[in-house]
Design a protein that fits this description.
Length: 216
């Protein structure tokens, strides 16, 4: 790819950014099916100085701060262009036909338990929720919202579950430190948090999965 050098430029804090380079970065971020990381941008735009690419990203961020419908966000270690939260109801109507893809209250409760207690076993999830969660775990695994990351170092060596990058993307979180208060998330998603979800438990020693082990 040739170095971008046109006569149309934007000024940003770090200097001057080519409008063409900014347009390319915007197209890449918009077209990517998942958050595109700085590393990926640098690789795709290998002929451009990294500082120019970074400046183009910041110029875009500034542009989208002024847009009423879309926003530029940092999520799951990368960048995305998404609709603003205050317009989600309108966007939801567009996808009303896909309502069958929504998570059930049971799945949301289970996902919340995993998000705030990870890594955690199926038995521990069931104890917190008060019901068997085997079927719900299968659904969350199929949707790639959770994954098996190892085994707990106790008798039986049960699987330990944790959330995925897809979880961060689905809920618009930069990383797990962005998780809101448990009560706030439960209210936003429309369920009552199980009592055990607010209790802090010590971390247990985790065993890695064997190379020839297939999670069940």
């Amino acid at each position: 790819m040739r170095s971008v050098n046109d006569n149309t430029q934007d000024r940003v804090a770090g200097g001057i950014v080519s409008a063409e380079l900014k347009a390319i970065v915007e197209a890449l971020i918009f077209a990517s099916p998942e958050p595109i990381t700085p590393r990926m941008l640098y690789r795709l735009l290998a002929d451009e100085p990294k500082e120019d690419v970074a400046a183009a990203v910041e110029a875009l961020r500034a542009d989208y701060n002024q847009r009423p419908g879309l926003q530029f966000v940092d999520v799951a270690g990368g960048y995305q262009i998404v609709t603003r939260p205050e317009l989600h109801e309108w966007v939801r109507r567009l996808f009303h036909e896909h309502s069958t893809q929504k998570l059930t209250v049971q799945a949301l409760e289970t996902l919340a338990v995993i998000a705030y207690k990870q890594p955690i076993t199926a038995v521990e999830i069931s104890e917190i929720r008060g019901v068997n969660t085997a079927g719900v775990l299968g659904t969350l695994l199929e949707r790639h919202l959770i994954k098996i990351i190892g085994r707990k170092n106790v008798v039986g060596r049960p699987f330990l579950y944790a959330t995925t990058k897809e979880f961060l993307i689905r809920f618009g979180l930069k990383d797990l430190s962005d998780l809101p208060r448990i009560e706030d998330m439960a209210e936003a998603l429309g369920f009552d948090p199980p009592a055990g979800l607010t209790e802090i438990a010590p971390r247990e020693e985790m065993l890695p999965l064997g190379e020839d082990e297939t999670p069940a």
